[in-house]
Amino acid sequence: MYIIIMDTPKARIPLPIGRSSFDNMIEGSYYYVDKTLFIRDLLDNGAQVTLCTRPRRFGKTLNQTMLKCFFENTAPFGGKDTRALFSGLKIESAGDKYLEHQGKYPVIFLSFKEAKRASFEEAYTQLKNNVIKEFERHDYVVEKITSQNDREVFEKIVNGNGNLYDYSTSLAFLSKCLADYHGKRTIVLIDDCDVPLENSWKCGYYEKMVDCVHSLL
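Above: the chain sequence. Below: its structure as C-alpha cells.
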C-alpha cells in the first residue's frame, strides 16, 4: 500500500519584473525588500542635497518613488492615503519623529532617463516634455500665484511656449510656487541625472548638455 500525502502549495509572491514604482509594487502585492529605513537615514542626516550613486538595477528609482510616496502632500490630488502604503514596513515602527513628516511636503519628481538622444535638440525636447508634465501635475498652484508675470511664465512653460531660459530655470520656479502654496519647502527628486550627460559625451554635444543641466539643477 502506498500513502501519498498532497500538500497545498503556498501562494507565490510575484516578482516585480520590469516594475520600479513603489506604490505600484505595494498595491500589487509584489515581492518587496523593505528599504524604508532609508527615509529615517535621510531625515537623520539632514543634508540639503543627497547624491545616491549605485550601479544599474540597484533600486535607485524604486527608492526615489518610495520617498515621493512618503513625503508628498497628496491633498491637492484627491488625498490618496499614502500611509496605507507603508503599513507593516519598518519606517512605521521607527517612531513618531519620522512619521510626522509623512504626507507633509510638496514634491517634484523628474526623471532624466528618457533624455538619451542622438542630438542636443532631441534630448532638450525630451527634458522639456518631462518638465511640462510635472508642471501639469502641479497646476493647482496657479490659484495662489499673485504675480501676473509669474502666472504668464507658468502658462508659457506648461503650454510648451517657453524659451531655453524658462525651462532651464523651471525647477527653481516650480519649487518656489509649490513652497508658497503649501507653506513648506519643496523636496526635489531627480532620477537618472547622469543619463543625458553620459550620452551627450558619446554623441558629441556634451558642453551644451552640461550648460542645460547645470542651469536646470
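The two ends are 75 Å apart (CA to CA).
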